[in-house]
Specification:
Number of strands: 21
CATH superfamily of the largest domain: Galactose-binding domain-like
Number of helices: 5
CATH topology of the largest domain: Jelly Rolls
CATH architecture of the largest domain: Sandwich
Strand content: over 45%
Largest sheet: 7 strands, antiparallel
CATH class of the largest domain: Mainly Beta
Order of helices and strands: EEEEEEEEEEEEHEHEEEEEEHHHEE
Radius of gyration: 22 Å
Length: 266
């Protein structure tokens, strides 16, 4: 790759009719680079979140190599498939960069489910709040406490002009800790567990009022750190790795929808 970056990690697997590469960014910041593969077969890029394949237009194949520019957000990843097998594919996605609308105010939240460490097992409890309360985008620990592990639904009603409704193509949630399920005007957009937390919305916006629902799920790290339920068990019962894992869990307590939440288009 050019330039070299210790943050980019790649894994290669060879199959009967080609090769598969999984490439991911392990740094905390965006990495822009050119990837160079010792491959000459046709290339597909796989979007595992959308379950689609496409052929990149920016690749260059010369001297028994294939190169192309890529951009990885924190935690971003791509799957590259080199094969002479023909697979169903879609047109190359457009990289929409023009911010048409920022959705920063008017957010409300309600808890939907809690995950706790019980006496003998993990417990999942439906915990639908009677009403939604105001919230600012960011870490929800100040409202729900450090021990909360579960699902929180964010709700916002926002207006769109005719121009934004017709040009809006992508809903970008910015940063999410850690997984989310998204609905726009009662239509499911999908789920995401890593960057980019972005969803196609062309033709789904309405001029006037729109309703966006985002259910965010954090990890069990908050329970592992704040709940002392596992302390009664000996290391022989829960394993020696538990004490080591607590150090990693302490780095994952931050939870919630951070944004910025934007609508992008051409």
């Amino acid at each position: 790759m050019e330039p070299q970056s210790p943050s980019i990690r790649a894994c290669k697997r060879i199959f009967e009719k080609g090769s598969i590469y999984f490439v991911t960014n392990e740094s905390l910041s965006q990495v822009d680079c050119k990837l160079i593969f010792n491959e000459t077969l046709p290339l597909y890029i796989c979007d595992p979140k959308q379950e689609t394949l496409y052929k990149p237009s920016s690749l260059v194949q010369v001297n028994n190599t294939t190169s192309l520019p890529v951009s990885f957000r924190f935690g971003g990843s791509l799957v590259f498939i080199f094969t002479d097998e023909v697979y169903p594919s879609i047109a190359e996605p457009v990289n929409y960069q023009v911010e048409l609308k920022l959705i920063n105010d008017g957010w409300k939240y309600c808890t939907r489910r809690t995950y706790t460490i019980g006496k003998h097992e993990f417990e999942v409890n439906g915990n639908v709040a009677a009403s939604c309360l105001p919230i600012k985008l960011g870490d929800w620990q100040s409202l729900l406490g450090t021990a909360f592990s579960g699902d929180v639904q964010y709700l916002v009603e926002f207006d769109c002009s005719d121009d934004v409704a017709s040009r809006g193509a992508v809903l970008d949630l910015g940063d999410v800790k850690y997984c989310c399920t998204v609905e726009l005007n009662d239509k499911a957009l999908g789920r995401a567990a890593w960057q980019p937390y972005a969803f196609p919305i062309a033709g789904m916006l309405k001029a006037g009022s729109n309703i966006l629902k985002i259910t965010v799920t954090n990890t069990m790290a908050n329970q592992f750190i704040a709940n002392k339920g596992l302390e009664k068990w000996s290391i022989s019962k829960i394993g020696p790795y538990h004490l080591v894992s607590l150090e990693f869990e302490a780095e994952s307590l931050t939870s919630g929808l951070f944004g910025p939440v934007t609508i992008k288009g051409k």
